[in-house]
Design brief:
The structure holds 2 protein chains of 2 kinds. Chain A is mainly α. Chain A has 4 helices and no strands. The two termini of chain B are about 40 Å apart. Classes of the chains: A mainly alpha, B mainly alpha.
Amino acid sequence: MAASLFSRLNRWISTFFTYVTATLLFVLMAVTCVDVTGRYFFNHPLFGGLELTEILLAGMVFFALPLVCAREENIVIDLMTMPQGKLRIAQNVLANIAGAVTAGVMSQQMWLRALRLDKAGETTIQIKIPLDMVAYTISGLLAVTAIAFLIRAFIPSPVPASPQVD
Amino acid sequence: MIETLVGFAAFILLAFLRIPLAIAMTIVGFLGFGHMVNINASLAMVGQVTYETGLAYSLSVIPLFILMGNLIVRAKLAEELFRAAYAFVGHWRGGLAMSTIVASGGFGAICGSAIATTATFSQIAEPSMRKFGYKPSLIAGTIASGGTLGILIPPSLVFVIYGIMTEESIGKLFIAGILPGILAIGFLCGAIFYVVRRDPLAGPKGERQGWAVRLASLRRVWAVVLLFVVILGGIYAGIFTATEGAGIGAGGALIFALVLGKMRLRDLVEVFVQSATMAAGLFLILVGATIFTNFVNLTTMPYDLVALIQGANMAPVMVVLMICLVYLVLGTAMEELSMIALTVPLFYPIVTDLGYSGIWFGVIVAVVCQIGLTTPPVGINIFVVKSVMKDLPLREAFRGTWPFNAALVLLLLLLVFVPGIATLLVENVR
């Protein structure tokens, strides 16, 4: 029961992140296209296009990071991969804990940055997006990434990591 | 100097323990920076790099070019390219293999990913070559090496990452890749010519096609030509930047995938997510490499290297050849984009200090990456081909790439001694 609840939750969360990530990339592409065509054909670039691109990019990257961990797509050197067994398990635990700690430290540092931006009340120049909200979001997503690494440390994915082909 | 060497050793150790490369670079860079300054400064540096990399406008070029490549794979344009190339050279000895190389090069002109190109031609060209009785090692070598052409032929992810690391213009790097890219197609076809001369049974002739068929097949590749001309022409004429070109290219590729490839909406989400996670993985690499470089720049390593080279009184060309050698060795084991992110900050100042053009060095780096993708033990392109040709022993597959890699080494030497091949077209860019 607990296991099925966990896997249902897992599927629900990864579906959510999948759709958000895909949408952000689509909007990023659309914003660039509209910006360029607007500038050259109508002499009117998209208002705040540059800042919008930056925020969308950050959103896409950090929403995608938990998926990178969950799908085990991190780039590794595969020369010394241990065969199945205790050493392989140890290798997996070590790699993912290193990832979890790194993502955790990044998340904490981003939180501190968000607090500073919050205090200074900084926003983007044209469309006035509050930068502290951006930093808080990134911090939260890095925390999710750290958790994703932790889960992978103890529940390795059933399929062995292999280069993405299709 | 000693701190950096310890740092590199620690990185290699962590990498061999199968810790993700980006994480290994971050950990070593963080600890090294902490050792040189203090831990609090190092923590702040990690936060700074993560924030600024995530929000950098110029980096939006990465996911957009990846997306364009992944969409173009679905537009089924590779078949048309292969058919057109086959119509022209298929009846030569080894002609099917040469068609594969030419078509891969054409595909590389709209897709910047070597893995995507290789995977695509494994599906398309392998069955035809097998049908005509081609030697399996020649089939594998042709597809794997042809797949690397996209690295040199613009648009190319390697140039994008190199441009970001060195602040060289990505647009100029793209233009610089055109002539060497065309030469590379010729050199790889030369390798096939050599193989079938020695062993005529390795690559039998295909059917000869009439001119009517040839012209008809050419008309079918309009979409590829259109996309390439719009993107590269736009960049060349200064109408848009590489980032904007990537956005337009991805938009065009999306339309082609939906209309020509009849891609379903359900697959669309998967293509977008796959592109986004690939880009995010590269971002982690860039963050890690920047953190590592921040540490290296605090040490005396960069000056020591320059002093060492000046002290040794070596000819500049010898230095470049040594750097190429280092890359060829590194490339056998390391993933190519991580290799660039890690080493270019160290080598780029040396090479430009010797009076070489940074754009030219980018082209050199692209060629060594091409070779690295098909050399054992970690030639990723070979593994991609092998996922289709399951019965082919790995040794045979790697043996098939040797003639091609020899040809690429010749190309590399040509570029080292005649830098003008890379820089000729760039001089006219606005």
